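User: Sequence recovery, please. Input:
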């Protein structure tokens, strides 16, 4: 497993509320998991565009 680092971000309150709804509805296990998955997806799309 790759080493992970903790970071801090600033995010619009409305966006965070929507993220919290996704977590509450069990779409994602928690905020951290959502950001890990989505940032990896975005990164992979940037380095390997279709």
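Assistant: Recovered sequence (50 residues):
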């Amino acid at each position: 497993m790759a080493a992970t680092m903790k970071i801090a971000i600033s995010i619009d309150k409305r966006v965070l509320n929507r993220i919290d709804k996704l977590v509450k509805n069990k779409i994602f296990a928690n905020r951290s998991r959502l950001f890990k998955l989505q940032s990896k997806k975005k990164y992979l799309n940037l380095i390997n565009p279709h």
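The two ends are 27 Å apart (CA to CA).
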